[in-house]
Amino acid sequence: xxxxxxxxxxxxxFDDSQVLKGINLDINENEFLTLLGPSGCGxxxxxxxxAGFEEQDKGELLFNGIEISKVPPYKRExxxxxxxxxxxxxxxxxxxxxxGLTIKKTDxxxxxxxxxxxxxxVGLEGFGQxxxxxxxxxxxxxxxxxxxxxxxxxxxxxxxPLGALDAKLRKEMQAELKKIQIEVGITxxxxxxxxxxxxxxSDTVVVMNNGEIQQIGTPTDIYNEPENRFVAEFxxxxxxxxxxxxxxxxxxxxxxxxxxxxxxxxxNEEVEVVIRPxxxxxxxxxxxxxxxxxxxIVFKGVHYEILVETSERTYMIHTTDYFExxxxxxxxxxxxxxxxxxxx
Amino acid sequence: MRHFKNLVRPYLxxxxxxxxxxxxxxxxxxxxxxxxxxxxxxxxxxxxxxxIEPVYITVFMKxxxxxxxxxxxxxxxxxxxxxxxxxxKEKTQDILILFVTVPMWINMLLRTYAWMSxxxxxxxxxxxxxxxxxDPIKMMYTDFSVIVGxxxxxxxxxxxxxxxxxxxxxxxxxxxxxxLGANPVQTxxxxxxxxxxxxVVNGVIMVFLLSISTFVIPKLLGGGQFVLIGNLIENxxxxxxxxxxxxxxxxxxxxxxxxxxxxxxxxxxxxMQKGA
Amino acid sequence: MKKTGKAFSILYIFLCFAFFYLPILxxxxxxxxxxxxxTHFSGFSMRWYKALLENSEIMSAVYVSVSIxxxxxxxxxxxxxxxxxxxxxSRHILREWILNVNNIPIMNPEIVTAIGLMILFxxxxxxxxxxxxxxxxxxxxxxxxxxxxxxxxxxxxxNLANAAMDLGATPAQALWKVIIPVLKPGIYxxxxxxxxxSFDDFVISYFVTGNGVMNISIIVYNMTKRTNPTINALxxxxxxxxxxxxxxxxxxxxxxxxxxxx
Lengths: 344, 276, 262
Prior knowledge:
heterotrimer; A: alpha+beta; Rossmann fold; CATH 2.40.50.140; 6-stranded mixed sheet; 5-stranded antiparallel sheet; 24% helix; 36% strand; C: mainly alpha; MetI-like fold
């Protein structure tokens, strides 16, 4: 795959607070890349630097190998879908979508054709004459996408585009966005704080915190092999345990040695271990190394969330089976369920 | 949009030249003696001392008195009207308020001029009184005519803020008051009036400062010898030619108003914090 | 009980409106009086309108009022709108400073603003007349435009201009094709305010004019010493023009508001 955009050591400071502390990132052609992190982590600033609404203090921004930091937004071949859509309230749906083409003085017939094709793509056929301010959130969202895509950008930038929608609509739009991305075949850079959204749509997820990249990887990598405590905690719920790496594939915590699949740590290095709640099985007492008492059980819709207190700590377990509180149980997991991370 | 921040520059310069510098000049005139040259400026407080002389203090007190009377009348008439209007349907309210504001858009001088003929000795009002068998009353060039002019011109400034605070009041508060056993009179004084206080304060201060600073209405309806603060300032600049004293009086007037407005803003903010 | 309350309400509204509109009505009626009296209506005639047209002094005052109102409205609307847009992007301190300075002419008694400008012009040795009146009108109108437009700017989606530029518009195009059209209601409101403020102004014009340049207000002020129904004729025209404009501009949106809340 070709590198389309390269960020090299980008830093940015607003009013004495450093929001980006040296971002290095390569973005490939046709990639669906998500910048994921809590609010204030710098993800939106990164996106705005790529779009050209902000300029970095230091570092390089390359597009197809050419430095573009000084290129104003209106000369970049990127288009943006804004957080609250930023639709032009004085223009109807058609004119909103046609805005970019009109600015470029495209032929009227061509505009009409392109806009109508784009409205069809986003499922708004026949909405051209509607007032944008009277559309539902989901429809406004689609207009914003059409308005950006009609210009045939090389890259589409999306800044928390589903944030204003309700949960059900958000799910539908996620699927639709992915479909559109495949259909138009361009790079999407997507900003969100919703880990589920990031994992379900992206080819690559970039987890950010405090102006730094924590981890770059595929959704599966990020989920299964979090590189540090922040990523593990941010992506899904997890049990994070202080541990000692005795040697390759053998880790010690809570007073027991466990086989694992991680290698490359120093001998006796202090590490942290992540075990996802759904990877722990509750078994009969005596059938596992760890033992404890069921403290609480809460039904979460599909699974139960169970807290089991052992002599060392409380584990969270997700399971579809029901266990009485107060029951003494064993906790079992396999070597591949133990994810060892460097300690911060 | 950071590209647009330079758009304020022309106004920054312009407002400095045409708003800030004139204020500074008034200040300079107020604290210097007559006949200054650029090289030889003489500072003095005599212009302010002069204001304490009985003649001018009388003018000042009279302005305050007329302002207070105007405020009181406007408050009673205006609150009643605002309250009644706020009981109508929203659209009717909008239309009624529009008709309250329309006169504000029409030249004050023309409206004051109209009162001159209405109130004159053989004017329309006295003719109407004649029909009722009442002898003509001398109304022009009295406190009465001036107050009529002030109230007519400034009443809308009382009605609008009060109506705004009444209209945006949460109707469920009134229902809650009834629900908790308050009768309509109690509800009015303990809930409605208290909640409309920000509007009342706003209106009172607006009307007061408009009344004490006007010079057209007292001049036209009160006649030449009717002197309020505004007329005093006008005389100093137009007929007497003592710009230094005139500036000092203006400065005093501006400071009074500044203080009143900061009181109003403070109350406004307090009111908003309570509301939040 | 309820019915009498309602009747009382309507009577009260009627009396208040009579108080507001009676002087206006009387002015209009007596402008058609055939005699010079302002108290006894002796018959319908247009003589005062004829007299008005023939009075070159009044006609030149009308010209001064209208031309100053038009020019100062255009300039203050332009200046005020650009400033309001710029303000939303300015540094906090600068914004506070400008907004506070901007409030001075709105809050200050007119007479203080007037003498301030009068002193300014005389100390800068600018000859008082048409130009000083025009400058003064721009000075006191612009703050009203800013106060009308700035809240609308603040209510805008801050990304609107970015969106336009993202789609290929230059900053200037973003301003003309997106920001200004979206702000139109606020700009019109400011424009209307600026125009009527200028057209109705007496106090400030009175202090900063000279060389016999008079607007309508000043000429009325000078003529009030004698009974002169020509003023009624002039008043009637001015009142009707303002009245109809305001009514059309303000009433139409109210009537169009079909319970739709924005």
